[in-house]
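User: Here's a protein and a ligand (adenosine-5'-triphosphate). What would the complex look like?
Assistant: Let me lay out the input and then the predicted complex.
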Amino acid sequence: MSAPVSTPTERGASDGPAAVDDGAPALHRSTDTAMGTIRRGLALSPEFTRGLGITLLFAVIATVGKIVVPMAVQQIIDNGVVARTGRPDMGFVTTAVTVCAVLVVITAFCSYLMNVRLYRATESGLATLRRRAFRHVHDLSVLTQNSERKGALVSRVTADVDQISTFMQMGGIMLIVSSGQLLIATALMAAYSWQLTLVVWLCFLPLLFGVRWLQRLLSKAYLKVRERTGDMLGAIGETVMGAAVIRAHATEERTGRRIDDTVLATRRAQVKAQRLSMAVSPFAELVASVANAAVVVAGVWLGIAGELTPGELVAFLFLVTLFVSPMIMATEIFNEAQNAIAGWRRVLGVLDTVPDIADPGRDGHELPRGPVSVGFEGVSYAYPGGPTVLSGVDEEIRPGTRIAVVGETGSGKTTFVKLLTRLMDPSEGTVLLDGADLRRVAFSSLRRRVVMVPQEGFLFDSSLGDNIRFARPEAADAELEDAITELGLADWLDGLAHGLDTPVGQRGESLSAGERQLVALVRAYVADPDLLVLDEATSAVDPATEVRIQRALDRLTRGRTSVTIAHRLSTAEAADEVLVFDDGRIAQRGTHADLVRLPGVYADLHASWVHSSA
Ligand SMILES: Nc1ncnc2c1ncn2[C@@H]1O[C@H](COP(=O)(O)OP(=O)(O)OP(=O)(O)O)[C@@H](O)[C@H]1O
C-alpha cells in the first residue's frame, strides 16, 4: 500500500511506560475507584452532563408527581369518604380526583421530556467517546496496536462503549428517578408516621450493607466479563481474517476448539457475574415483603393507639411500594453500573495509552521539496523487551539515489525502513532527512514527502480510482489516467472493462496479486513523494504483469530518492547502490557490479538468487 507514513507512531524500545496524554482536558486520571472512573468518563464526554439541570428539574417534577396518588387516596378516604359531616362528600372526591388526574398528566409529560433529554445527552456523550477512542487507536503506534489483537481493540471501543450506553440510557435515567423517589417517599412517609418510617428503614439497612459488599465482588466479576468478551471477539476476528490459511492447513477443528475455549471462558465469567447479581434482587424482594408485613402490623397497632388514621395507613402502604420499587431498581441498576464501569475502565485504558511517537506539530520542521538525502548516525534498535536487532548503522544516502536493501531473512531490513519512515524511533542514534532529525519533522511534512509501499498494499472495498487517489482524494480521473499512462500501464487500464470504476472488492480480492501491486505503485505515484520506501512484493506474478511492475517501478523511482527492500536480483542490479544487511549490521555497500565480484554476503546471496532462478 502506498499510504503515506501516516501511522507514524510506533513504540520504541527506549520509551518509558505509558503515561497519559490524550489531548483531553486535565482530568482526574484515577480509574482505580468506581467514582474515579465515572468522573473521568464524564469529563471525557461533557455531553453527558450538559443541560443536566433542566433534565433534573423534569425528573423532580416527574418524581414528586408520584406522591400525588397516595396523598389523594389519603385525602379521599379521610376527608371525602369519611367527611366531618359523617356522610361522603362527593364534591370533595370529584375535585380531588380531577386535580389528581391533571397532575398525573403533567407528571407523565415531564417524565417523557426527561427521558428524551437523557437519551439525547447520553447518545451525544457516547458518540464523543467512540470518536475519541477510535481516533486514539489510530494514533497508537503499529507496535502498540499489535500488542493487542485487533478484535480485542475493536471490542474496547464498540462492545465496551455499548455497555456504558446500556447503563447510561436505562440505568442513568432510573438512577435519577429512583433516588428522587426514595427521598420523597421517605419524606412523606415521615410526615405520616416517623415510627413506621423507622420500621421501613430498619428493614432495608441490611440490604444497603449487603449491596456495598457485593459491589466489590461484582466489580471484579464484570471486569473479567469484559476482558473475556474482548478475548473472544479478538479470537473470532483473527480466525475470520485468517480463514483461508485455516482451511489451507485443515486446522478448522483446532481453530474451532480455540474459539470454543474463549466462548466458554466468556460464558463462565458471565454466569459467575450473573449468579452474584441474581442474589441481589431476591434478597431485596424478601426485605420488601418483610417491610410490608412489619408496616401492616405496626400500622394497625398505631391505628388502635389512635396515632394513625385509616387513610394515612393506606397512603403509607402505597408509599412503601413507592419506596420499595426504587430500592429494588437501585440494586438492578447497580449491576448495570458495575458492568458499565468495567467497560468505561477498558475504554479509558485505551485512551490512557500514550501515542509513543510524538508529532512535533506546528513547531516541527518542514522539509523542503525535492529529492531527499537520508542519514543514519550511530543508529541501533531493539524491540521492546527484545535484543538489539540493528546496531551501529552509520550511512548516508545521497538525494535521488536508488538504493536496494538486501540481506538474509531477519537481518534487519524491515527494521531499517521502519526507522527511516519513523514508524519507530531508534533506541540509540539519529535518523536524518535532509539533515533534519526525523523526530523534529512535522508529521504533515513527513507524510507529504515520504511514502512507504509495503509488500501487500491494503486496498479498500471501493473502486480502483478511489484506491489510487487515496492519498490525494481531490485528484481528478484525468490525473489518475495520466499517472497510469506515465507509469506505462495504460494497456492494463484499457484491459479493465470498467476502467477506474472497477470495484476492487474487500481488501482488493477482486484483483490479482500483481494488479494489487500495480494499484499500490500508481497510488504512490499520485501521492508524489520525494522519498519512496518500498518493500518489494515476493508473490509470484505472471510474466506480463512482472514486466509491467518493473516498468512502473522504474518510472516511479526515477528522479526520487528510493530505498527498496529487494527480493529479486533484477531490483538489486538496477539500483544505484546496494546495502547488504547481515545480522543487524550493514556488512557491505556498493554497486551490484562491484559487490558481486567480492567474496562476502552479497556474493553468496547472488549465488543463491541465480541458483533459484536457474
Ligand atoms: N515487532 C517485533 N517485535 C519483536 N521483534 C521483532 C519485531 N519485528 C521484527 N523483530 C525481530 O527483529 C529482527 C529483524 O527483523 P526484520 O523484520 O527487520 O528482518 P528482515 O531482514 O526484514 O526480515 P525479512 O526479510 O524476513 O522480512 C528479527 O530477529 C525479528 O525477529
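Summary: The chain has two domains: 123-351, 374-613.
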